[in-house]
Amino acid sequence: MEISELKTELEKLHQASFGWALNCCRHNRSEAEEVLQTVYLKILQGKAIYRGESKLQTWLFAVIRKTAATEHRKQVLRSLITLGSPVEKSSSEPGLELEWSELQRRFRQALAGLPKRQRETLHLVFYQDLSVAEAAEVMNISIGSARRHYERGKKRVRESLDREGVDYGIQWRRKENSGVVL
Amino acid sequence: MEFSGDEKRIQALFSELSLEDQTRAPRFEKLWLRAEANAPAPPSLVMRLVLVASVVIVVMSLVAARAWLNSSQSQQVSSIPPQIIPTIAGPRVQHSELSATAKDVARPRRLARRQTERTAISQAAMLSNWQSPTNILLHSPTVSVLSSLPQLNQSARDLEQFLPKKNNELIKESKQ
Predict the structure, then answer these.
(1) pTM given for the model
(2) 3-class SS of residue B164
(3) What does the pLDDT look like over B1-44, one tens digit per residue?
(4) Which residues of chain B from 2 to 21 reach within 8 Å of chain A, CB to CB?
(5) Rounded to the nearest 5 degrees, what angle is found at the Cα of A129, between the Cα atoms of A19 and A89?
(6) Comparing B40 with A122, which gets the higher pLDDT?
(7) I need a surface site. Which of A78, A98, A107, A110 has the fewest CB within 10 A?
(8) Higher pLDDT residue, B157 or A122?
């Protein structure tokens, strides 16, 4: 694929890529921007080459995921070298948190409490509208594992929101036995 | 992928999240241009050709230099006169066993061997006589004193020299 053609395709995927980069960078905007820029640089330098073996989106997301992991590792190392200045764990911007609805805040908290793989699978399936198989490809794991992460993640989000007592017009409990509980 | 029940609700929450992320997303052009600015420009076709040509020239000159060095070394080897290495005479072979042609070949060899033996002997003699020019520095002036025994009546004889001659003669006569 020519670079101009690739650029057009990347532009189409830019919003989704940024969303995925945000997820990989624990919703740190500046870090996500840096990661995405590094990914574009890798593509320009020919370090990341799309060979058409998979969908462009899954390939790009895999590159973003790998780059984010590398950047995070570097950041941890840097913090260790500069004698224990702690790595930023809270990632989202404080101003934005005020704008979020209560439900959205709880939901974000529930997502943040998930293990990495479960969070990634849910993001890819629900946010990016990928299939579980495609999510597995992005995460470089088997479909079986991806499905397991998907089911467990879903269950934990539901449980977490139930525990918080979030209702807001959404009935979280399953309605299989609705006739029994009246 | 079609969702149902809880999945739809989760998807609704995710889509809200996605809308919010979209408002925060930087422009594609901004990131792309920044990446392009950081990326080194790929070498043009002419530059590549120049690069390849220079590599070929360097390799060829190296090969030529090596060939020239090899040839000059072989010339030097050929210009060196053949050295005769002195050898120990081998066991003698009975003359009766040698054929006539073998005898003819053996004669000049024997002569050459004798010559080499003579030169070797003369060179060995020269080497054994050789003395270092700084050898004299190794000898001290007191070596003769230390290496010889003193004579017991030496001091008496030395004193005689200081006595007047007459007395000396008288002493000699009395001795006689």
Answers:
(1) 0.55
(2) coil
(3) 666 777 888 888 898 888 888 888 899 999 899 888 887 766 66
(4) 3, 5-7, 9-11, 13-18, 20-21
(5) 35
(6) A122
(7) A98
(8) A122
Contact B17 A107 (CB under 8 A): yes
What would the CATH number be for the domain defined by A1-92? 1.10.1740
* Rounded Cα–Cα distance for residues A129 and A125 (Å): 5
> Which own/partner contact pairs does B58-64 have at CB distance under 8 Å and 24+ positions apart?
none
If you ran DSSP here, which 8-state letter would residue A127 be given?
A: I
B positions 39-58 inside 8 Å of A (CB):
39-40
Q: Identical fold at A1-92 and A100-165? A: no
pLDDT confidence band for A176 (50 / 70 / 90): very low
Paired tokens of A26: 């624990």
Winning range, highest mean pLDDT, from A11-25, A166-180, B97-111: A11-25
Q: ipTM score here? A: 0.76
Q: Please check the confidence at residue A174 and state whether its pLDDT lies above 60.
A: no
Distance separating alpha carbons of residues B67 and A111, to the nearest angstrom: 72
Instruction: Output the CA–CA distances (angstroms, integers) from residue A65 to A39, A155, B131, in the order listed.
Output: 10, 24, 85
CATH of A100-165, one of 3.40.640.10, 1.10.10.10, 1.10.390.10, 3.40.50.300: 1.10.10.10
What would the two tokens of residue B2 be?
A: 């079609």
> Given B1, B6, B36, which is nearest A172 (Cβ)?
B6
Pair A87, A76: CB distance under 8 Å: yes
